[in-house]
Design a protein that fits this description.
With about 190 residues, the chain is mainly alpha-helical. It starts with a helix and ends with a helix. The radius of gyration is 17 Å and the shape is globular. The protein has one domain.
Length: about 190
């Protein structure tokens, strides 16, 4: 039973990395470096000044890129496999010591799957807002994504059980939505 809390924490962090890849790690790294919060041994790799600087630069480049038209769509394409990897890392970092195969399976399936699912939802919404508003709403959409990723990271640590269950509900609801979307004809429902 001691693994439920870390798994739900990992689900929340994976969802945050599905929106912005580097921002959740940067927030954790900053809080750890400045001793604002203690995250335990699993996140000790983020408590290093060089890691803080590298994540800060990566976060700034990622956030700035999403405000540039066309670059935001290229970043969405690149972000999908990277979100999968970030989801695996965030879930793996949150999990306590477990048998290696179980840790790896949870990280791959739940962590990576959650991140890719959230990333896919955000990508669909970005395409829809671009098509319907000719890209004029993309900077506002990027700001909302930045806020959501930060909020998801904070809520993952403050209320991991409730937030993890909420994210799992969102993931399953998005899977049902995508399944219905493909059954009814993708092009008629997307735009």
């Amino acid at each position: 039973m001691g693994w439920i809390l870390p798994v739900l924490l990992g689900v929340g962090l994976s969802a945050a990395t599905g929106i912005r890849i580097f921002l959740p790690f940067f927030i954790i790294s900053l809080c750890s470096y400045f001793d604002l919060l203690s995250f335990g041994d699993q996140f000790a790799w983020l408590d290093n000044p060089y890691v803080v600087m590298a994540l800060g630069v990566a976060t700034a480049v990622e956030i700035a890129g999403y405000y540039i038209p066309l670059v935001d769509h290229i970043l969405d394409i690149i972000a999908t496999p990277m979100a999968f990897i970030a989801g695996i890392i965030s879930m793996s970092s949150a999990l306590p010591d477990m048998p290696m195969y179980f840790d790896n399976l949870l990280s791959l399936i739940v962590g990576g799957g959650t991140a890719v699912s959230i990333n896919g939802m955000m990508g669909l919404w970005r395409v829809k807002t671009t098509a319907s508003l000719f890209g004029f709403a993309n900077p506002a959409f990027s700001t909302i994504e930045n806020i959501l990723s930060s909020l998801f990271t904070v809520l993952s640590f403050l209320i991991p059980v409730a937030f993890g269950i909420f994210i799992l509900f969102i993931v399953f609801a998005s899977m049902r939505f995508v399944r219905r979307l493909f059954r009814s004809g993708l092009t008629t429902r997307l735009i």
